[in-house]
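Issue: ligand-bound run for coenzyme A - logging full I/O for the record.

Environment: standard queue, default settings, no custom constraints.

Inputs:
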Amino acid sequence: MPESRLPREFPGGRLRRLHPQDLAAFQAYRAIPELGRYQGWSPMSDEEARRFIEAVHRAPLFEPGQWVQLGIAEAVTDALLGDIGLYLSADGSAGEIGFTLQPAAQGRGLATAAVREALRLFFAATDAGSVQGITDERNGPSIRLLERVGFAFVERRQVVFKDEPCTERVYTLPRPGG
Ligand SMILES: CC(C)(COP(=O)(O)OP(=O)(O)OC[C@H]1O[C@@H](n2cnc3c(N)ncnc32)[C@H](O)[C@@H]1OP(=O)(O)O)[C@@H](O)C(=O)NCCC(=O)NCCS
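Outputs:
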């Protein structure tokens, strides 16, 4: 996929590759326990985070069977505010999305706009017929974001996540016009 498809501007921000200068900002928000509570990731050491950012900085976008992480950056300063993970299934037929925004940037619609932009990119760059969003039932901001973007509720699932029984809500967004 041509690299020219990133960065992508949206009102108030920019979707772009993570790069090594993001390390401090990335570590600052990923260390906040509430931000990772319902997420698949756990805080990393600085060295692990440095290697992770280095790897996703160059990773091809949307390889079957792989996650790739994109940065949400502030429009004027380009400072990293959060990130979006996108996964393409091994057979290329479906995607999954996850998103994180640092607390000081929340409540302004930035994550919603960034997720919309990431989905436009994902559907343009792949043949996936839909994207799934999976979130804990207690995660109100995440549920509201998915519904704002147009994801439809599919089902509830009982799972054990981070050693705790919990209820997940599964959402799906079909390819626009598909
Ligand atoms: C999920 C998460 C990204 C949502 O953050 P957020 O700030 O609520 O989302 P947005 O930036 O899109 O802002 C939307 C909020 O701003 C409000 N808002 C204000 N101005 C707005 C605008 N111009 N456009 C849209 N929303 C606006 C909305 O009403 C909404 O608040 P509400 O949900 O209370 O109604 C954030 O809570 C987070 O990082 N959580 C931890 C990580 C996580 O659990 N991720 C989900 C797992 S997949």
